[in-house]
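FAQ: What does the model actually see?

It sees only this:
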Amino acid sequence: MSIWICPVCGERLSVNGRSLVCKKNHSFDLAKSGYVNLLPVSRKRTRDPGDNSLMVKARRNFLGKGYYKPMSDRLCEAVSSVFPQNGVLFDAGCGEGYYTKNVYEALSENGKAPEIYGADISKCAVDAAAKYCKGAEFAVGSVFHLPVAQKSCDVLMSLFAPYCGEEFRRVLKPEGKMILVIPGRKHLWGLKKAVYDTPYENEVRDYALEGFEFMGKENVDYEISLGNAEDIQNLFAMTPYYYKTGRQEQSRLEALNELHTEISFEILQYRNEVK
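And it is asked to produce this:
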């Protein structure tokens, strides 16, 4: 049975032709690419919330060239180490599905027989994910109101997405595992030096999270070299800095044909303490 629940009444959804329907007859049509929109209009702050097509395309093109593969490989190892034989994994804030697909393939290669689900508030991103990763089910939805059944997930992963501990604890099974990926202090330091007069390090907060037992972390640090303007612009466009940077600073990056920058991630592991 699917883990999706009706965003109107909270009942489980089941497939009925090209729709998902609950027992109270609330119905949600599947898009051509296979995803379902479970984000009510009342929970939208804008007409099209989340990443737009420019950011999704930039991230897809950049990630497709393997620049973040070392981190993705370590993520796959971390998930595989805690994932049960026939478990359910949920990707909260799945974006265009790059990491969802990599984790799905890694688990499948290890004989884990996973059920994989992903949700993101961006319809554009979810559409791309559904086309890219056919082994998973995707929905448009907010991490603050996940359209996911209570205690239905063995593992939840969240990469660079908003954190909502209450919802994450709700959907995880007792003793379920959560894996977060956050940027390290020096992540994209070379990019920041190229753009800003006074670059700043990322803030890394306390790892303690209410309702979770912290199991440990792994640092993933390396450097990348970008040898063309397209890759540099794609990297910039897929970050929050793109919309927070003035035109003068953006022009500095547009003039570059090569860029060397630090890559720094932290992979954090937790166990759900909620029974």
